[in-house]
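User: My advisor asked me to double-check a structure prediction for NLR family CARD domain containing 6 before group meeting. I don't want to rely on an old file, so could you generate it fresh from this sequence?
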Amino acid sequence: MTPDKLLLKLLPVIEASRSAEFYNCGVTDEGCAALSSALRSNSSQLRELNLSVNNAKDAGVKLISDALKDPHCKLEKLRLRDCGLTDEGCSALSSALRSNSSQLRELDLSVNEVGDSGVKLITDALKDPRCKLEILRLYKCGVTAEGFAALSSALRSNSSQLRELDLSVNTIEDAGVKLLSEALKDPHCKLEKLRLRYCGVTDEGCAALSSALRSNSSQLRELHLFGNKVGDAGVKLLSALKDDPRYKLKTLML
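Assistant: Sure, here is a fresh prediction for NLR family CARD domain containing 6 from the sequence you gave:
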């Protein structure tokens, strides 16, 4: 029996569960159609769905996105890591996030080649007051300075609810860090956790982050910079912030 056919048989069980884990199970858009039906059921209790490392692709993601718009859907966490997603799927997700009915708080799009165009679509949703997203993971998504500029703009929006952002293994470098640092200084920015592992950040980027974290507006409590090109000067700047009770930074990974 194929994974998709098995999903169809398990629908009553899935609807009654709060969490469904289908990591690397060979699920395609046929299985996503079954899950979409389950999510829209009046009896659905699903709060968390993991479809990572499957063949969902854009067609399957569109079906899941349609379910997110349904008032019966209670899903709060959705993981789509390494699913062959492109900006076409991001467009469907962006539309769903801007729906009055969407309850989604956490979205993982890591290891998908969504690029800057896909990130811009997601950031459009973050600016919408109907969007409830608090955690966004974009690990290894092909994001460059253009995408970071869009994220910086979204973080400064009065409507953004984002508390946690993972941009690790993207071509951020110091230019991108400076854009994000400007957002951290904005009183509208609610970001508390930021992961920038393996992003080519140097002491110059650390100086921009240090300046942002010294701002009265910064809410950042956790910063991950492991795997970057940070020298002694950068380490000294950020470590001083962590050890100073005047600032909010409590966790620093270098």
